[in-house]
Amino acid sequence: KLMSLALQPVITPKLVENRAHLKCVYERPPSRQPLHYEVLWSRLSDTGAKEEIRRDTTQQPFSYLEMDGVHLRLGDTVFCTVTAFMKDTPDQQSLPEESSGFYAGIKFLPESLQIAEDGKEHVLTILSTVPITCSGNDDSCKITLQLSTEDLGKTGQLVGPPNVALSSCQVDLQALPCTASGCAAAALTVMAVTDFALDGDRVTRISARAAARSEPLWRGYTPKDVQVTVQDLPTGNCYSFTDPHIITFDGWRYDSGRLGTFVLCGSARRPFAVHVRQRQCGRSGASCNCGVAAR
């Protein structure tokens, strides 16, 4: 039986005749006689066990496997295991060498987020590890993903509205040549919603789903979601009341008896502002709040 030959198999994504494939590439060791290779393709089942997809015998230092949506589906984690042998002695094989698992599909990076109600934006990347396929000669070949959020709440509390805000409710993954980092990517920003309530840390799930008119391979595919844990922070309050007395977020108190429309508060980070309108009220000439507008 042969010793280990350091075949070092690696799985990479490839686009072949506008169809998505995975390619298992391995080193060709020096040998006096031509070597043959047996390539076993397998994937993780729902129970975590490896199940065989296909077994190839070839003289080439590579093997292809098409993502046909049946034998190999989006969302599968795939492995290739390679052994080498000589044609005249097929029963004397090298030690099998297995590649690292290759996740074929779309994933969020990072796979989880820890953010706080501090107004800061966080970048979330959506990455496709397999080629984007399109039928026909479409110059704008892409996959559109619809994004949604769901508050998972926490133990002992009712589920509430989403605790995060996304910069977009859909993203497009444009078809590009595959690289070591992936085949297509899009980015969006995530920010915690400051809800002015001490409701504890909460978890929100962000999900993506391919649009209905996508290619058959992608249609109905649901990528793994990402969970965002939002740290609850104490929030300040400001007040304007009676004729009017004003208390700022940091506790300063003063009075404003002027008439007109004024900016009560605003944000330097995002388009948020509260305007108040003051007019004369009563016989003493005092001014009172008569209207408020916020954006």
Automatic annotation (TrEMBL):
InterPro entries: Dev_Signal_Modulators, Ig_VWDE, VWF_type-D. Transmembrane segments: none annotated. GO terms for molecular function: signaling receptor binding. Keywords: Disulfide bond, Signal. The keyword Nucleotide-binding does not apply. Residues 236-295 form the VWFD domain. Pfam families: Ig_VWDE. The keyword GTP-binding does not apply. This is VWDE protein. It comes from Nothocercus nigrocapillus. The gene is Vwde_2.
